[in-house]
Design a protein that fits this description.
The structure is a single chain. With about 230 residues, the protein is of the alpha/beta class. It folds into two domains: about 120 residues, 3-Layer(aba) Sandwich (Rossmann fold); about 100 residues, Arc Repressor Mutant, subunit A, CATH 1.10.10. It has eight helices and eleven strands. The strands form three sheets. It has a five-stranded parallel beta sheet with strand order 2-1-3-4-5, sandwiched between helices. Strand 1, helix 1 and strand 2 form a beta-alpha-beta unit. It is globular and about 50 Å long.
Length: about 230
């Protein structure tokens, strides 16, 4: 049974999501604020975190940063009423796996959580290609640690799971333009969609972390992205 940590300062929201995910077979823990969320995360290491943004004291962005300082793999999904592109870009830049609006139907939210868990399981299994690296130009990324190296030397940058999946998808088809839908399928599974702002944010952070190899990722207007040979 997968365990989900739901973080929201509004009791009505916590109760609603507890019922929703409990009915889906999840073990559910809830936190009322950021400090409680970080404590519960450290104590129980849930399988996935569902995280509100706008909370008093430590907000969702601070919680995500705190989690990512010690854990680069547990899926973190923002669930928020802050429906802005800037919020999406900031959240994804902090290492979140997804950014879902509270106006989304319950079925979409559950599907996003299940997709994140499936990606994590795949990366822990054979699909993760343990012991191998994905390379492009002078940069390579270790498939176990997601650490970036340039000219064989670690840079200290670490990709998120989503960034690694994106890099691997592009590197597996050099010179081929992957459409928005093809990239979304590689990141989240067939049938799932991704907001354009989310994909642009992932691409921007991936380019920066890859250093000189980031320039190899080019955008094709109205077509998608490709990794040049």
């Amino acid at each position: 049974m997968a365990e989900i940590l739901i973080v929201d300062d509004e009791k009505s929201c916590r109760d609603a999501y507890r019922r929703l995910f409990g009915a889906e077979g999840f073990a559910v823990r809830t936190a009322r604020n950021g400090d409680e969320a970080l404590r519960l995360f450290a104590e129980h290491r849930p399988d996935v975190v569902l995280l509100d943004v706008d909370m008093p004291a430590a907000n969702g962005f601070a919680v995500c940063s705190g989690i990512r300082r010690t854990d680069g793999e547990t899926p973190v999904i923002f669930l928020t009423a802050m429906e802005t592109e800037a919020g999406q870009i900031r959240g994804l830049g902090l290492g979140a796996d997804d950014y879902v609006f509270k106006t989304a139907p319950d079925q979409i939210l559950v599907a996003r959580v299940n997709a994140a868990l499936a990606r994590r399981a795949a990366m822990s299994g054979a699909a993760r290609m343990r012991g191998k690296a994905v390379s492009a130009g002078r940069a390579s990324v270790d498939a176990d640690t997601f650490l970036v190296s340039v000219d064989g030397k670690p840079t200290g940058d670490r990709l998120t799971k989503t960034e690694f999946d994106l890099f691997r998808a592009l590197a597996s088809a050099p010179g081929t333009t992957l459409s928005h839908d093809e990239i979304a399928a590689a990141l989240r599974g067939s049938g799932f969609t991704m907001e354009s702002a989310c994909l642009r944010s992932h691409i921007a952070h991936l380019r920066r972390k890859l250093g000189p190899a980031g320039e190899l990722i080019v955008s094709e207007r109205d077509a998608g992205y490709r990794l040049v040979r």
